[in-house]
């Protein structure tokens, strides 16, 4: 991904990695590089007027990706205003998720007949510093971490962090439950990851998720 931050995307493009991590019928679009180039949709102008430049750029790029994904499924001109939790309000009958990190932004959506909830998350591995590990990992996850080579641990923590964030986004719209990092346990497998959440009775069995690591970027996706 070298030089990625130097490229300026003029519009979102299909996020093929994310599409491959989700059930057939989901749409995903991404924005790579300098996200401050994203044009502001008139619907969002009032919402972004008082935002700091970085937050404004992330918001605008995220909404651009979300609208591109919805348009791919035949839904156009969706307002996507923030709800009480500040997450986007997806059109009736659709689930979705937006994520952004340095030099990358993406959104996914699908009909609720296909997925009750969708969650995606993107993280830069180098940004998940060791000072955060105690707040991210459960005791069992720490044990698994120390079984890895030291050079692999940073990526594992970033993956664990991202997987939990993706699940939080997927479950909240229909459970209304706010979860903490210690409420969810991640087990990383060769083909993806599984997670267990004891906080809510809605999830009595492990849930499967997918991930991709590409350079310093980790992407995770959970569909419910």
Could you list some keywords that capture this structure?
Ribosomal Protein L22, Chain A, 4-stranded antiparallel beta sheet, single chain, alpha+beta, 6 helices, 2 domains, disordered N terminus, 29% helix, 26% strand, 5-stranded antiparallel beta sheet, 224 residues
Structural description of this entry:
The chain has about 220 residues and is an alpha+beta fold. The chain has two domains: about 5-115, Alpha-Beta Complex (Ribosomal Protein L22, Chain A); about 120-224, 4'-phosphopantetheinyl transferase domain (Ribosomal Protein L22, Chain A, Alpha-Beta Complex), CATH 3.90.470. It contains six helices and nine strands. The strands form two sheets. A five-stranded antiparallel beta sheet has the order 5-9-8-7-6, with helices on one face. The longest helix has 26 residues, at about 150-175. It is globular and about 50 Å long. The chain starts with 12 loop residues before the first strand and ends with a strand.
Which helices and strands appear, and what pairs or packs with what?
Blueprint: E1 13-14, H1 16-20, E2 27-32, H2 45-48, H3 53-72, E3 94-101, E4 104-111, E5 118-124, H4 133-136, H5 139-145, H6 150-175, E6 184-189, E7 192-197, E8 207-214, E9 217-223
Antiparallel strand pairs: 1-2, 2-4, 3-4, 5-9, 6-7, 7-8, 8-9
CATH architecture group name of the largest domain: Alpha-Beta Complex
Distance from N terminus to C terminus (CA atoms, Å) equals 30 Å
> What is the helix tally?
6
Number of strands: 9
| Approximate helicity band | 25-40%
């Amino acid at each position: 991904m070298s030089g990625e931050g130097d490229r300026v995307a003029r519009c979102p493009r299909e996020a093929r990695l994310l599409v491959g991590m989700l059930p057939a019928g989901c749409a995903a679009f991404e924005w790579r590089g300098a996200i401050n180039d994203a044009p502001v949709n008139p619907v969002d102008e009032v919402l972004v007027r008082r935002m700091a430049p970085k937050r404004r750029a992330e918001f605008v790029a995220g909404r651009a990706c979300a609208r591109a994904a919805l348009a791919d499924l035949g839904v156009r001109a969706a307002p996507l205003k923030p709800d009480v939790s500040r997450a986007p309000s997806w059109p009736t009958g659709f689930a979705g998720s937006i994520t952004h990190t340095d030099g990358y932004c993406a959104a996914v959506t699908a009909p609720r007949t296909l997925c009750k909830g969708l969650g995606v998350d993107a993280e830069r591995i180098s940004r998940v510093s060791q000072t955060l590990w105690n707040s991210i990992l459960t005791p069992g996850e720490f044990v698994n971490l120390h079984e890895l080579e030291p050079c692999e641990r940073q990526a594992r923590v970033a993956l664990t962090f991202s997987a939990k964030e993706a699940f939080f986004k997927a479950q909240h719209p229909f459970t209304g439950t706010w979860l903490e990092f210690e409420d969810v346990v991640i087990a990383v497998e060769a083909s993806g990851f599984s997670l267990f959440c004891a906080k809510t009775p809605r999830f009595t069995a492990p849930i499967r998720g997918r991930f991709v690591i590409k350079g310093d970027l980790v992407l995770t996706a959970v569909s419910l």
